[in-house]
histidine kinase
Amino acid sequence: MTTMASAVMALVCVSATLLLLMAAPQPPLYGSAAVLAGLIGGSLLLIAATALGTYWMMSRTLQPVRAISGKLATIRPSNLSERVPLPSHDDEFKELAQTTNQTLERAQAAIQEQLRFASDTSHDLRNPLAAMRTEIEEALMRREEIDWVDTADRLLESVERLQDLVTNLLEISRLDAGVIGQHDLLNLAVLVDGELDHRQSKVRVVRRFSSGVMVNGERIGLTRLLHNLMDNAERHARSTVMVTVEHRGDAPVLEVYDDGSGVPREQREVIFERFARLQDARAKDAGGSGLGLPIARQIAEDHGGTLTIEDSPSGARFVARFPRPAALAAGSR
Ligand SMILES: Nc1ncnc2c1ncn2[C@@H]1O[C@H](COP(=O)(O)OP(=O)(O)O)[C@@H](O)[C@H]1O
Ligand SMILES: [Mg+2]
């Protein structure tokens, strides 16, 4: 608007000048100093008015940006729940404010998750440490009559719990940091078979493997996934754990299932959350951390696969699906 007004004024001034020049006697052409001064003065005024108008208009237009950046400058980790103001008009600035708020929301969720994780971790570290402290204090109070070998055995249990927890925490931070080890084309059945040979199981472990099931993966990661599933299955099984490796369609699939009490349908996603342990497991083994399944799922997903629980006649049936290796897929085309 202001620019239009300035243009009209400029046109009027130029026309008036021309009229004056035409009306003036010949010569003097620019003879009058007063006319010349008026022209220069008018032009300067016009330029000043245009500049002021443009400045006013720009600052009005950019006002929402100032409001957004002013608010952003005050946001800290302690007040991440605050949001930038939304401009009233539906334009690019509103879009910018909405995107900024969505980013803040994601940052807030991530920080809250980290805080919850730190608090759960401290809690889990505190329990074995408190048990060790009590054990040592009691032993020292009755130092003459105490059986030090028994005491050492009980302390060792707590140390093992601490060690397991710290190992899991290290694994989680490695996975969260996206550290990716070397991926090789691996024969899944051979890998699983070899790992099961090294396990000492308290229950019967039945293996059913198809040949030629190849995955592109990190050996250490896949081994850990298998052991995490096996630890659980052996803990919960009544008598038998079944491990299968086969193709479903094109996809390599690893299954670990047991004949235990299973996982209720409504808890099947909950148990993949960090530190989640069901009552049944707490009763069976106080030492778990609730990190085994989240780690196993993250490993499967980092390989482009999935880890889920599926229905089975009895017990829990964990199914890890992997993508068909690209090299094989290309070869079969
Ligand atoms: N095979 C299974 N049968 C029944 N419940 C299971 C089985 N595997 C896992 N769960 C449940 O899932 C929970 C989480 O498992 P996990 O993350 O490995 O933690 P942890 O083994 O340390 O308890 C277990 O505490 C248990 O309640
Ligand atoms: Mg476990």
Observations:
- The chain has a mean pLDDT of 89.
